[in-house]
Specification:
alpha+beta, Aminopeptidase, 2 domains, 6-stranded mixed beta sheet, globular
Amino acid sequence: MAYDPWAKTQPTRNSNIYSPTGRRSSAIPKWMRRQRRQISCGCGPFFGGLLLAVTSLLLVYLLSPVRTNILILGIDYTPPENAVGRSDTIILFTMIPFEPYIGLLSVPRDLWVTIPGVGENRINTAHFFAEGQQAGSGPRAAMDTIQQDFGVRMDYFVRIRFDGFRGIVNAMGGVDIDLNKPMAGYPVGKYHLTGNKALAFARHRLGSDDFFRMEQGQLLIKSIFRQLLRPRMWPRLPAVWIALSQNVDTNVPWFLWPRLVVALLRAGPDGVDSRTIGREMVTPFMTNQGASVLLPIWPKINPVLMEMFGQ
């Protein structure tokens, strides 16, 4: 049949499917268009709303203003079969990702406090006595001691042996430090430390005292934070994670680690509030047994606890 340009409809082959030019028509039967509208109108908004709800809940969780406190313990050299050792490194860690705020407060190992179930003694012996009586109880005893004497509740703990610290730094390929003053036998300058050198730096006390040692430890922790956030370090993260899992004992749940990462990313290493219980907050004291210890001056310590932990 001839093509009539004035006709309202044109005869075509199988006119439902083909156009006058011979190409397929985009025409779709009404019942199919109706069904497609029902499917798209029903599923699209549903999945979009679900995605929005999940994203909102995730952001609320990651950025919630809830404070989390973690006790970091560095244990002196111990036999491989147990963890009976003194906690010569004691750091109170706190974070609020929403603000963001990250605080580190180092506690002198010779601080003379009351240990629950033991009595008065150096604070670093709380872990030692408990672990000697029952394996695995040391961190809880240290947390209870902090809560009783400092009034700060510790939610979780991270315990690391000094020899394990070397493995973590080596997995990172070493750590870079930048000294703006002489420290641990190093003059001012930038240095790259392997695991052994990093551990020696953190523990160095020759010609100094425990207050310098705490400052060195905090500088090293911040340097490690800074290095882990560098993109060139990211290919090493699997090895670092393996080293952490092999050398760190902790009860921090897996779902809390993303909040820690978010807090670090938002605050940045230079935004970490790092402090120590300094010389002006303690009084040197000699016990009846002739041990040199440090008596806490609580009127000077409590304001710091209030600023950092809201206690």
